[in-house]
Amino acid sequence: MDLKQLFLVLWKKKWILILVPVIAVFAAFFVRLFGDWKYKSTAQLATGLTVSDKIVERGEYLNPYEIQVTFNNLTEIIRSKAVLGQVSYKLLKHDLLDTVYAFRTYNSDNKKSDFIIDVAEQRINLLNIIQNKIDSVVLLNANRTNEKLVQKVIDGFGYDYESLIENLAVYRVNQSDFMEVAFTSENPVLSAFVVNTVCEEFIKYYSLSKSSRSTVSIASLEGIVRQRKEYLDTKLEELKNFKARNELFNSEAESEAKLRQVKNYEDQIATEQQKIRGLELTLANLNLRIEDAEQNTGQKNYDLIVSLRRRIGEMNDRYIRGGQSDASLLDSLTLFRGQLDDAMRKVNESSKLTSIEIKELKNRRDEARVDLEIARENLASLNKIYGSIRYGLNDFASKESVGKSLEKEVEVARQEFLTAQNRLSDAKEQVVTNNVSITQVVVAEPAEKAESRKTLIFMILSGAVSFFVCAFAIIGLELIDTRIKTIQRFRQLTRLKLAGTLPRLPDPDIAWDVSLKSNGAHRLSINDEVRKIRFEIDSYQAKVILITSTQEAQGKSFFIIALAYSLSLLKKRVLIIDTNFRNNSLSRMLTAKPNLDLLLDNVIKHSKLIGTTKGNGKAESENTESQNRPYDHDLITRTQNEWIDIIGNKKSRLSPSEIIPGGDFRVLLGWLNSTYDYILLEGPAINVFSDTKELIQFVDLIIPVFSAGTSINQPDTDSITYLKTLKDRLGPAVLNMVEKTH
After folding, report:
1. What is the average per-residue pLDDT within 156-161?
2. Is residue 223 part of a domain?
């Protein structure tokens, strides 16, 4: 909805926007003028929340959010029934004791009581009950008959909770440490009395509740301290017994000594292992040298050399005789020559060691074997001792772990005990040093003059509020209205080309007379709109036109008659065929004879029409006018407009294809095309019936009609989609019953 349309919607409802604020302004004026005069008294409380004499540690600041929450809590306490209930009792006590200067008198109609109470007779009883409630600082119990009676009396005086809270105002003064309590009533002394009593009862209630909370808090903290002390003693005793059983007096020192002992034996084992590996290598080397020396001593190597030389000589002769081409013989020669060189090298080496040297090597080997056995025995002994120490160390570690766990539990218990003890000390200190800090610094006095009525301000506010409420209500109703209503909304919803609009007429019957002589003045309001539509339709150069709609009661008959009349002004002959068998409103409105079936028979049989009749059904003689007509009897009905004729039908639940043969109807239309300039047909609602779809095959152009007062629903959307599939045969739409805006 754009701004222009929004303004037009408001302009249409301008009288509502004018009358409602005016009534509201006059109502505010009379209420403020003839209402009771009110007197207001105010008292002030100092809370001490933002002012403190305590020593504050560096970096500690007041939290504004917490302070505001505290002020809100104080406000709710002042407004609570616990405080205002005591105020009600003191007000009633005052009026019962001082009947001369009583603030109010008992009125049973204040709360529409079911019975009247004789306050004078019940005075002593009422005072006793009230005084008891004031002394005990408790509220009345409505389940007790005598206390319920007191509540009825309080209601009759107008001192009940609802009446007091309605005129009581409690608020924080800006962002200061002060709170203001104000009360407004018809009596200045009453206002001051209520404010001072509220402050007094609030301070009393706050003091009692704070003292009670402190006592409960200290008692609970003392219980916690006792529990923590008992738990700490239990853990200390458990740790002491464990150390005594396992002889763990200095676990850290014992643990360090055992670890040093383990490290010492690990070093000795590593040294022995290294010594054993050295002796094993020395012994292996000596064995190898002795074996080589023994093998190279004697005739054995010399015999091997002689044998190798002989075989090399034989193979060399065979290789030469074979032409030096045998590769296997060459490889064998190479192998034997290598063995010969190795044997000669060993003979040369063996010649370097004497028998005495070989004997010394054997002695050294025997010594190495003895040292190796000794080292292995030492290693086995060290491993045995090391395993025993390690086993003892694991057992000690397990005990030490349990001891450490017990010591940790003792430490945690000690910390919890100290924390609880500190909290108890702080709580006791607060009880001693922190007294009730809330005090009444300003006492309420009776007001000298009544509060200003501010009549003009209330009149302006009431007028402005009522205007904007009405405007928002109108706009809201307009936004939730799903009707088409405007051209812009029609185009958004349908995406169809629009030929024009027809306005909503005050009298829907003015268009049924096609001559329009008797009500031409009313017709002037739609003439221009119909001319626009006529021009758009005439541009399609179609002769047979079907007027249809998606829903029923969209104004098709009205539009057909209006269009026929507009075409008659161009001296065009127009024939209306009522093909809406579901609702033959055209036939009834124009008093047409239901002769569509007879006309079809005559056309097929004679290929011409023979008679003529007027709309009143009476035959007339031939004249100049009738000579230009294509008929001679009453099959086609004449209307009061000489350029417009109509073929009526009978109302039926059958569809067109079931009533009129398709071929015959096409012959009839072909014959009528030569006689009339335009033939207008009416089709039923597409959403409900299939008639329009059956008639589309006979026409040149389809004109859909929509009512601005209807909504586009899903069946309409489906029907519009179907119409768009007709492409060139779909003409522009007509929006009917549009509200005119000026």
Report:
1. 88
2. no
Contacts of 619 (CB under 8 A, 6+ apart): 611, 612, 613, 633, 634
- 148 in Cβ contact with 125 (< 8 Å): no
**Number of domains forming the structure of the chain:** 4
Q: Are 653 and 720 found together in one domain?
A: yes
Q: Is residue 352 part of a domain?
A: yes
**Cβ-based neighbours of 548, under 8 Å, separated by 6 or more:** 556, 682, 683, 684, 685, 686, 692, 702, 703, 704, 705
Looking at the fold, whether 408 and 500 belong to one and the same domain comes out as no
Same domain as 625, residue 518: yes
**In CATH, what number is assigned to the domain containing residue 398?**
1.10.287
**Residue 456 CB-density burial (10 A; 0-12 exposed, 13-18 middle, 19+ buried):** exposed
- The dihedrals phi and psi of 687, each to the nearest 5 degrees, come to -65, -30
Q: From residue 731, how far is each of 554, 583, 656, 702 by CA, in Å?
A: 17, 23, 22, 5
Contact 708, 505 (CB under 8 A): no
- Give the length of the chain: 742
CA–CA gap between residue 471 and residue 485 (Å, rounded): 19
CA–CA separation, 545 and 532 (whole Å): 17
DSSP class of 424: H
Range 27-40 average pLDDT: 74
What CA–CA distance (Å, rounded) separates 543 from 678? 5
For the sheet with 544-549, list strands across it.
498-503, 733-738, 701-707, 544-549, 678-685, 574-577, 644-647, 637-638
Average confidence (pLDDT) over 172-185: 89
CATH assignment of the domain containing 524 = 3.40.50.300
pLDDT single digits (tens) 363-392: 888 887 888 888 888 888 878 887 777 666
Q: Which amino acid is at 359?
A: K
Whether 201 is covered by a domain: the verdict is yes
Q: Are residues 305 and 262 in the same domain?
A: yes
Tens of pLDDT, residue by residue over 577-632, are 999 888 888 888 888 888 787 777 776 666 544 333 334 433 343 343 444 444 44
Inside any domain, residue 234: no
Query: Residue 257 has what pLDDT?
Result: 64
Q: Dig out the tokens for 718 from the structure.
A: 């489906």
Helix (H) or strand (E) holding 178: strand 178-185
Residue pair 49/178 in contact (Cβ under 8 Å)? The answer is no
What is this structure's pTM? 0.47
CA distances from 320 to 53, 323, 330, 338 (A): 128, 5, 10, 20
Token pair, residue 190, equals: 């009453």
Residues 262 and 130 in one domain: no
Judged by average pLDDT, the poorest of 67-71, 265-269, 328-332, 624-628 is: 624-628
**What does the alpha-carbon distance between residue 293 and residue 100 come to, in Å, rounded to a whole number?**
149
Kindly indicate the confidence band of residue 702, based on its pLDDT and cuts at 50, 70 and 90: very high
CB of 722 closer than 8 Å to CB of 690 = no
Extract the tokens encoding 5.
Answer: 């349309």
**What's the token pair of residue 390?**
């390690």
Residue 639 has phi, psi (to 5 degrees) of -105, 180
Same domain, 27 and 46: no
Q: Tell me, yes or no, whether 730 and 609 share the same domain.
A: yes
Beta bridge partners of 619: none
Encoded tokens for 135: 């002394």
Q: Identify the domain containing residue 635 by its residue range.
A: 487-738
Residues 24 and 45 in one domain: no
Instruction: Name the one residue in this structure whose structure tokens are 């779809």.
Output: 693
